[in-house]
Amino acid sequence: MEATTMLLLFALLAGQRGCTCTASVATGEGGFSVDFIHRDSARSPFRHPALSPHARALAAARRSLQGEVLGRSYSGASPAAAPVSAADGGVESKIITRSFEYLMYVNVGTPPTQLLAIADTGSDLVWVNCSSNGGGGGGDGPADADAGGNVVFQPSRSSTYSQVSCQSNACQALSQASCDADSECQYQYSYGDGSRTIGVLSTETFSFVDGGGKGQVRVPRVNFGCSTDSAGTFRSDGLVGLGAGPVSLVSQLGAATHIGRRFSYCLIPSYDANSSSTLNFGSRAVVSEPGAASTPLVPSDVDSYYTVALESVAVDGQEVATHDSRIIVDSGTTLTFLDPGLLEPLVTELERRIKLQRVQPPEQLLQLCYDVQGKSQTEDFGIPDVTLRFSGGAAVTLRPENTFSLLQEGTLCLVLVPVSESQPVSILGNIAQQNFHVGYDLDARTVTFAAADCTRSSASS
Predict the structure, then answer these.
(1) Residue 17 — left, alpha, or beta (φ > 0 → left; ψ -120 to 50 → alpha)?
(2) Which strands sit side by side in the sheet containing 357-359, from one edge to the other?
(3) Domain limits of the chain?
(4) Distance between CA 129 and CA 199 in Å, rounded?
């Protein structure tokens, strides 16, 4: 009961401090929306039913801090994701990875096969399992043992399936992918933690159930990997790359349709486990809520990443640090990683302002935690807003629920952490993005943020 009370308290504070507007999307033709399912939501097969909400939050923080592999993959990446020859003749594209956080349903082929895929804003390739060895690489707990990787797409049963030649632009975009005897494009696509998928680059009709009530949206000739073997921790029926590179779903939708290369999402708070967030494409991805702020994309070390320039941070409107820093906006990372030049003065100011009792962090994972045991539902924790100021004049104000999280009963912790030698790149994680409508526009080369009530938006879509 106490755990439930604390979650309700933090939810109440979120509602009091947050914007009361809903995340609006344009209606009519030119766009569609799908469910964006968090791995810990009631709709996810990866949810651990025995874990408390606090334990799930702690597990998510733990996944983010498995940073040694993540850091190596970031620091070793090149602007073109340079290939490394694989022992079996494939091509390895060094793209970052981390434990996935969001999923989406896709329907592949004619007639369609429905698959539950990882949705990844940090990589490009779209791929699905085409054999029993094509996906599902193990799990991180009891509930994962039989979840994911169970549905196999059978190309022979689809009338719209075809393979891609080595001379195609899509094959060339995978950096020297190998050719078989029939000049078909064989690929190996590897991620920073050693996970990989191997298969045949193909085309197929993809269809999406439109959450806006418009039925199904069919997109023909989507380039995708028909995975015949994989290794690692995918635990899904495939992966949808939503990155900024040429073979991502976003880029392909822009090339094949009139909806443009843009998408958005509105992430519901993690304590709302019974709802799904919304992922929008095309006209529905326009972020037009009051106070929407856009910042330009800047050159990135890897084509897939959505990188922007963070210039300063402020607490309750008072600037506490100025330091130019490139930061990746990513839905697949839970925590937010900041340059110490920005984070250290921010933590000092938060410590000065917050009057709660300090406690040791769970598992020594985070640096700043407070005791909120027994606080009443009407008592404000006294946590100030934090504003991130980006290039182009964009200012994004994070509410307490974006910067602190209950990681165990009665323990509230700052979920902003420093970059380090093992994780040297700044990342704006998904807790910081909750209750924001976040839009990515590759045509305009911008990322746009607007405060929103994402639960109401999801319910009305």
Answers:
(1) alpha
(2) 357-359, 369-371, 411-414, 404-408
(3) 2-24+291-460, 66-257
(4) 9
pLDDT band of residue 100 (cuts 50, 70, 90) is confident
74, 424 in Cβ contact below 8 A?
Answer: yes
**Separation of first and last alpha carbons in the chain:** 32
Percentage of residues in the chain having pLDDT higher than 70: 78
**CATH assignment, 66-257:** 2.40.70.10
More confident residue, 52 or 459: 52
What does each C-alpha distance from 419 to 64, 75, 130, 383 come to in angstroms? Answer: 12, 12, 38, 23
- Asked if the peptide bond before residue 400 counts as cis, ω within 30 degrees of 0, the response is no
Between β-strands 336-338 and 386-390, what pairing exists: parallel, antiparallel or unpaired? unpaired
Q: Give residue for tokens 């349709």.
A: 257
Give the catalytic positions in this structure.
120, 330
419 contact partners, CB below 8 Å, separation of at least 6: 337, 338, 339, 340, 425, 426
Same CATH fold assignment for domains 2-24+291-460 and 66-257: yes
At the topology level, CATH places domain 2-24+291-460 in: Cathepsin D, subunit A; domain 1 (2.40.70)
Tens of pLDDT, residues 446-456: 999 999 999 88
Supply the pTM of this predicted model: 0.84
Give the DSSP letter string of 377-407. Answer: TT----PPPEEEEEGGG-EEEEPHHHHEEEE
Residues 442, 447: Cα–Cα separation, whole Å: 9
The model's confidence at residue 134, banded by pLDDT at 50, 70 and 90, is low
Least confident of 32-46, 138-152, 273-287, 390-404: 138-152
Q: What's the mean pLDDT when you consider all of the chain? A: 81
**Separation between Cα atoms, residue 131 and residue 289, nearest integer Å:** 44
Which pair of structure tokens corresponds to residue 451?
Answer: 């405060």
Question: What is the 3-state secondary structure of 416-441?
Answer: EEECCCCCCCEEECHHHHECEEEEEE
